[in-house]
Write a structure and sequence with these properties.
This protein is mainly alpha-helical and 129 residues long. The protein folds into 2 domains: 64 residues, Orthogonal Bundle (Arc Repressor Mutant, subunit A), CATH 1.10.10.10; 43 residues, no CATH class. Strands 1-2 form a two-stranded antiparallel ribbon. Helix 2 crosses helix 3. The radius of gyration is 16 Å and the shape is globular. The two termini are 17 Å apart.
Length: 129
């Protein structure tokens, strides 16, 4: 997996890394059992602090996307953790609350959801899945 970071974005680098892994899983670029590159390697390749990569990996583990082991590093989980449904719904609720706070209407929210799901499906199909 090749990470790309943009130091000029408002989004912290560790969040950019985390989100790229989640999207790669959604597109089936990363599959259950795949191993992420070692933290030190990613830090060196991107010329960023080791702790930044470590934070991204820790959050991915906390969110249930990977399992961190001393031997293998970060491994994509074979299945979601038991509390995934609850945690996912909480994050979705916050995103929807943000949309409503800025007066995005229901039809537009649903349209964005459809477009995003279609985009992810197209990307996944393009990878031979």
């Amino acid at each position: 997996m090749i990470f790309v970071v943009d130091e000029h974005r408002d989004e912290p680098i560790y969040v950019q890394l985390r989100n790229q892994v989640v999207e790669a899983i959604a597109r089936s670029t990363l599959k259950p059992g795949d191993i992420l590159p070692p933290i030190r390697t990613v830090a060196e390749l991107l010329s960023i602090n080791l702790h930044t990569v470590n934070k991204a990996y820790q959050i991915l583990e906390q969110d249930g996307y990977i399992i961190l082991t001393r031997r293998s590093g970060g491994v994509i989980r074979p299945k979601p953790p038991a509390d995934f449904d609850r945690a996912w719904r909480e994050r979705l609720r916050l995103v929807l609350a943000e949309a409503r706070a800025f007066s995005v209407d229901r039809a537009q929210v649903l349209q964005y959801c459809r477009e995003t799901l279609d985009e992810l499906s197209t990307l996944q199909e393009g990878n031979g899945s």
